[in-house]
Every structure is written in C-alpha cells, then in structure tokens.
Amino acid sequence: MKIDNSLPLEYSTEENSLKILGFWIFLGAEIMLFATLFATYFTLENRTGSGPTGAEIFVITPVLLETFLLLTSSFTVGLGIHAMRIGKQKAMISFFSITLLLGLAFLGVEIFEFVTYVHEGAGIQTSAFTAALLTTLGTHGVHVTLGLFWGLFIILQVKKRGFTPQTTNKAFIFSLYWHFLDVVWIFIFSFIYLKGMM
Amino acid sequence: MDFFDRFAVPHPSIAIYASMAAIGLTIIAVIAGITYFKKWGYLWREWLTTVDHKRIGIMYLLSALLMLFRGGVDAIMMRAQLAVPENTLLDAQHYNEIFTTHGIVMILFMAMPFIMFFMNFVVPLQIGARDVAFPRLNALSFWLFFMGAMLFNISFVVGGSPDAGWTSYFPLAGNEFSTSVGTNYYMIAIQIAGIGTLMTGINFITTILKMRAPGMTLMKMPMFTWSALIANVIIVFAFPVLAVLLAMGTLDRQFGTNFFTMDNGGMDMLWANIFWVWGHPEVYILILPAFGIYSEVISTFARRNLYGYKSMVGSMAIISLLSFFVWAHHFFTMGQGALTNSIFSITTMAIAVPTGVKIFNWLLTLRKGKIVFTTPMLYSMLFIPLFTLGGVTGVMLAMSAADYQYHNTMFLVAHFHNVIIPGVVFAMLAGLHYYWPKMFGFLLNERLGKWTAWLLSIGFILSFMPMYISGLDGQARRMYTYSEAAGFSLMNMISFVGAAIMAIGFVLIVYNIYYSTRYESRDISNDPWDARTLEWATHTPVPEYNFAILPDVRTNEAYWDAKKNGHVLFKGEFKKIHMPNNSGIPFIMSCIFFVWGFSFIFSLWIPVIVTTLGIFGCMALRSFEQDHGRYISVKEIEETETNLRGA
Amino acid sequence: MSQLFPMKQVLGFVFSLLLTTIALAVYFLDMSFAVGMTILLVTAFIQAGLQLVVFMHAGETKDKGAIYTNVFYGLVIALVTVLGTLLAMVWDM
C-alpha cells in the first residue's frame, strides 16, 4: 500500500482520503436530516393540543449540564486527535475514553430529562409538539448512543493494533462525527430550549 | 390461527390469488432451476457477493426491467378499467391499490434502479477508474434497494397493498382511513431502499470527485458523468428528508404519535409539505442522468462534439439548486397565501430556463452534424419534441392561479407522464441499446429497436394527449370510474388503445433481447458506435480491472482524441492492480434488513429486536474486520489483455 | 504535558463556552423576541463555524473546496427548507 508520509497518518493512503471525503458528504446529508426535523419542530412547536407547552416543561439546569458535557467532550475528542497526530497513543486513548464517558453522562441526563417529561404528561403521544420535540431530541440521542459504541470499538482497535493508517483514519472520522453531533446540539440548545424558554 | 390472520389480504380477489400462485410458482421454478443446473455456487461467488461495479450495475438493470413490467401491468389495468364508463373490471379499492403501487414501483423501483444501472456501469468507465470509491458500500446499496423493492412487492399478496396514492397523504394514510398494513409497507420498504440510495449518492460523489483519470479536470468530464455527479448531489441532500418523513409516518401509524393526525395539534398538511421537499428534487434525480445519456447519444450520432459544454454544466448546477426551491407548487391549492404561491410559482418557472438552454444545446449539436439514425438516436430525436411539450405544460401548471383549474385532474397526470416517459424512459431505452454491446458483446437488433421506438412514441401520444383534454374538461385523477354523461368516454378509450400499443412496444423489447441473444453477431469491435468517451476505450467484455493502464486525458472527449488526433491514452507499462475482495456481508445484512422490515410492518417486536441486533452485529463485524483487498499480478494482466485483444 | 493541549484548541473551547454564555442571556435577561432570536442565530452559527474550522479541520487538505461546497450547499438548502416550510405552513402569507 502506498503511504504518503507528508500527510497525517489518517490521510496517508488513497483509500483513507476517500473515506474522509465520503464522510464529509455523509455529514452534508445529516445536515438535511436534522434540518427536516427542525422544520417539523418549528411547524408544530405551538400545536400543543391539550398537552403542555415548551415553556412549561423545559428546565434550564439539565439542559445547561448537557450542553457543558457535550461541548467538553467535543473539546476532548479534538485533543485526542491532536495526541494521535503527535503519536501519543496513551494520551489519545485517555482523551477518547474521557470523551465517551462525557457522552455517556450526557445520555444519562437526557434519559433523566425524558423520564421527567413523561411524568409531567408530555409523552411522545401527547401532542404534535411533544412528538416533534422527542423525535428531534431522540434522533440526536440515538446518534450519540451509536457514537458511544463506535468510539469504543475504535479504542479497542487502537489498543490492539496501534496507530496504523486504518485505525487513525477511523479515529479521525469518528471525531468528525462527534464534533458534528456537538454542532447539532448547539442548534437544539439554541432553537429548541432557549427559544422555548425565552 | 389468530397470529396468521394478519397476513391475509383484507380485500381478496381472483387476481390476487392468481398472483399469489404465480409468485409462488416463479420462486419454486427459480430455486429448482438453479439447483438443477448446480448454479448456487456460481451465483454466490460471481453475483451475490460481488463488489464489481459492472456486475452490480447489471443487477440493477435486471431489477429495473422486472419492475418495469410489474408497474406496466398496473398501468394497463388502470387504463382498461377506465376504457369504458361504469366499468366493473376493478372495484374502487383495487383501483386505489393499483395506482398507488404503479406510482411507487415506476418511480422508486423502476426509474431509480435504471439510472443506478447507468451510473454504476458507465461512470467508473467514463472517468477512467477501476471501481467506485467504496465498492462494498456499493454492493450494500444495491442489496438494500433490492430488498426494499421485494418487500414492497409482497405487500400485494401478504397483508394488503398500500392504497393511499404514491404520495400517501395524511390523513388518508393514517390509521383511521388506511387500516391495513399496506401503508406500513410503504413506510418501511421505501425506507430500506432509500437508505441504499443515499449511500449510492455518497459513494458516487466521492468517486467522481476523487477517482478521475490523470488530466481529467472537472470541466473535462464527459457529460453523463457530470449529470451523475449533480444527480447524486441532489440524492445526498434530498433522501435524508424522505428518511425523516417516513420515520415520522411510521411513528404516527405504529406508535400513536400526532405528527400528521387530525387532533392533538397534528398537521396533516405537513406530510404533503415534507413529502415534496424530497419529491420534487427526486424528479430531477431521474431526469438529469437521462439528460446526460441524451447528451452522450446525440453527440456520438451527430458525429460532433456537444454544443455548449459549459452551459450544459451550468444549467444542471442551477437546476440542482432550484430543484430544492419549488416544492410548494405541488400544493398550490392547499390554502397558503398569495405571496407564498407567487414565490414558488416564480421559482418553478425559472427552472424552465436552464432546461430550455439544454434543449437548444442539443439542437445546435445536431446542426451541421452528420446524423446517423441508430435506435438510441431515434429515441433522442423523439425525445426532443415530446419532452418540450411536457415542459411547456409544466410552465402552465406552474402558474398558481391557473393551477386551481388543473389541480388533481388528468391534465396533471398527462403532464408528468409527458416529461417522465419521453424524458426518462426513452433515455433509459436509448441508453440500454447504446450500452448493451459494451455489457454483453453484441448489439440489440436495430430493426426491432426502431419499431419499438415508434410504437412507444405513437402509443405514448395516444395514451396521454387525450388526458390533457379530459383533464381540462374536469376529469379528476385517481377516480376509478365515471358516468357516461360525463363525456370522458372517447378520450379514455383512445388512452386505452395507446396504452395497449405501448404494452406491445415493451413486449417487443423483451423479444428483441431474446432475438438478439440468439441471432445477433458476436463479431463486433470494442467501439461499435464510433463513440467519443473513455468507456469505449475498454475491451469488450470489460475486464474486472477496467483499464490495465489508467488513461491519460486531455479533453472531454479523450477517446475521440485518441482515435482522430493521435493522442496516446495508455502510456507506460503494466503494474500490479489493487482490487477489493468480494464480500457476503452486504447481501446477508440486506436479508436481515428484509426480515427486520417485514417484522416491523406487522409489529412483531421480538423479531424486530433480534434483527436489529443482527444488523448492528454486521456493522461491528465490519468495523473489526481487516481486509486489505488483493492484487492482480502483471502476468495475469498480460494474459487477460492478450486474450481480449485476440478475441 | 502542554504539548497535549494546543493553544488553538484550548482557545476554541474557551470561545465556545463564551458563546454559550452569551446565548444564555436570552434566558436570564428580559428582551424582545427579535433581539433574542438575533442573539441565538449569531451565536449558534459562529459556534458551528468554530467547530468546523478549529476542531473538524475542514480546510486542511486539498479537498477543502469540495468539503466547504458540500457544507454550504447543505446549509443553504437546509435554510430554504426550514424557512419555506414555515412560509407555507405557519406564517400564512
């Protein structure tokens, strides 16, 4: 296999750079996926039927906590990629592990939030508003959950095989995914929660 | 027995029992045939596990032809039912099911795989690549599409067909009015096929952007590759919308949410809105590759370069962007205000401009050309006037005020068939005749081909022109019958005759394939049409690595350059070639998807959970697998090349 | 140790926390809907751009043309979809 040493290891083969570009295009598709969910949410936002409104069920504390957890995890996964590029395997694995733990914590808070909503009578069947809200949040949450498994697999592979063109490529692509989820969360935070509580 | 009751068709008839028997017998015959000829191993090794873009392309083609006949039977049944007033051939329920499946099958399971076939078979050859960027993903795309299509088709005999129209508008498609599992089939089967299509989109954009032959800049790509690139861009941004829409529809139907219901704040119109956010770009996904094929065919058989290359590219880029800006013209009458309608009216009319640019470019390519009337060229020549007619009626429909008259009448039906049949179907058939020799090493019979082209055109005109008239007279679409006093009888009878002529045309295509396979000469060159682009610089049959040496490209007609201007395409010596390994995972994973989809449709949650785990298991397996592909040695390449040159 | 924390990324993180704090103003302070939305739009899109450039290294290879085109194309269509949907479904103009 041809390895180009002038580039970081994750770009070093033809196949690697194909995969990175391909993943970027996938993220383009993800933009539209979440845009559709947002369009639905904004349309149905005030159609609460007999159920509660956003202002009635949103609470700032768990939301802020989630935002902080996800922002920090986006930072640490970035540090993980930096560590990978300077060849520090242990540091990279540590940063990736921290990222996944933060992701797990985020998911925990989100599940707590969902349970609270259901207790307050805002289940997914309650109204058009709750359906759109929980579907949008849920889609993001499912992405995070999948990311946790994916990240775990990558840590295991780096541990077993070290930094190779394949493992670094996977780790880099995972980081793109994780940062993207953070971006989506920023939009959820701003235009679902803060706008709803404004 | 209660458990099995759910699989019964809620509205059975002799036709459905006959289809059940026919499907069952066909499956048994296929299995028995493969076993008798001991082809299971061959089938598994060479086709089910293949990652070769050419073979995947051919499998797309077979699926498309199969579905063409399924959708065609639906069409002829509809026309037969409407041929005379107060007909009782079909009842209302069956008519609803048939127009629904006709639409979905023709758009998603016939036209889509047909363009996928062209993209798979042609694009890597045209850009001088050895395969697509992600060969295994490509196999997965195909198998997901195939399983989605098969799942959709069994709805007819297991549990009931969808019957809410191919647009499946709520509240009609909701639980209250569509009580059978039919609409669940719609949601799940299209979802599975759609995931495959989205992955194809990503795959081909990456392929076209990163894997072109040395020297082929973007502006030196053949026109079909350009059209494929732009169609795939639309796929990548449109199909996620469909995925979300179908997921929300599924939630509404199976999990009691209120997105599109009539109470608790639900908004049925939102379905129509999001459906067309995907649906309108979808028609451009179909038409742009068709335009690409016409461009190749017209410049080949006018024996000159394509007129206005840059404006062709520019107009497609504009179309791709505008295609996302017009969707509300599908529901001008839904009650939004005048400003909204005006905005979408104007954007819609604006699309006619780049489309018109393309028509003029083709006409100017013909000017001063030395035209050769082969079958593909005949289809292209029939396309230009017929398609223009459809385009013009499109501009009529784009005027929102006037649309109140046309909306949901046969006028609309005539319009979209008028753009899709001469636009897409003729292109697919032109391309089929054009690329057939590259795939199979012999030409399709020209005499039969031309007969077919004329039959289809005449049949088309007779079928659809009367609908413009009866539509303006007020005949609504999707009505299963009409009274004699309505005065639509003559027009509908003419339509039926036209449909019958078209049916003869399509049967003639099958006969042509049979006839040509038996009698046509195998002694053809690698370039039987004297064509201009790189796919014709390969051997016939194309070796698995496509090009022993990657071509060196200077212009957008690299092969023509090599033939006429002494440009040397293949410089240097053979080197070993890296190729991907075959894999069974895409096929197995798609089979699991099929079971997942089937269980989901019938709300059988335990199998759904098991298969979901199976799907993630396949993905995890892929993550941990190390597969670096294999190499074809220089010696093998030399042998293959000598053999092919000798042949 | 310090080489594990490159300045660019640390500053990026601090800046993203800052943007979040600014966005929070719409919750804690009393302001009109228009002002609040403007603040949210500005902070959210800057934040997204920050992630794209600082953390996702969007511009580091020769594919950056394709990557940025892809993202902006997606963004334009996404905005048109959201605004067009609101226009047809909610604003009723």
How would you characterize the overall build of this protein?
The complex is a heterotrimer of chains A (about 200), B (about 650) and C (about 90). Chain A has about 200 residues and is mainly alpha-helical. The longest helix of chain A is centred in the last third of the chain and has 34 residues. The radius of gyration of chain B is 25 Å and the shape is globular. The longest helix of chain B is centred in the N-terminal third of the chain and has 35 residues. Chain B is mostly helical and about 650 residues long. The model of chain B has no long low-confidence stretch (mean pLDDT about 90). The chains are: A mainly alpha (about 200), B mainly alpha (about 650), C mainly alpha (about 90).
Major sheet size, sense and barrel closure of chain C:
none
Structural class of chain A: mainly alpha
Question: What's the rounded overall pLDDT mean of chain A?
Answer: 92
The percent range for helix content of chain C is over 70%
* Helical residues, percent of chain A: over 70%
Most extensive interface, residues per chain?
A-C, 51 and 48 residues
**Percent in strands of chain C:** under 5%
Could you describe the largest sheet of chain A, including whether it forms a barrel? none
- Average pLDDT taken over every residue of chain C: 88
Which assembly state applies to the chains in this document? heterotrimer
Stretches with pLDDT under 50, minimum 5 residues of chain A: none
> Could you tell me the radius of gyration of chain C in angstroms?
17 Å
| Topology order of chain A in helix (H) and strand (E) letters | HHHHHH
> What overall form of chain A do the CA principal axes indicate?
elongated
Work out the helix count of chain C. Answer: 3
Spans of at least 5 consecutive residues with low confidence of chain C: none
Would you count the extended β strands of chain C for me? 0
Shape of chain C: flat
Termini separation of chain C comes to 59 Å
Report the order of strands and helices of chain C.
Answer: HHH
Number of strands of chain A: 0
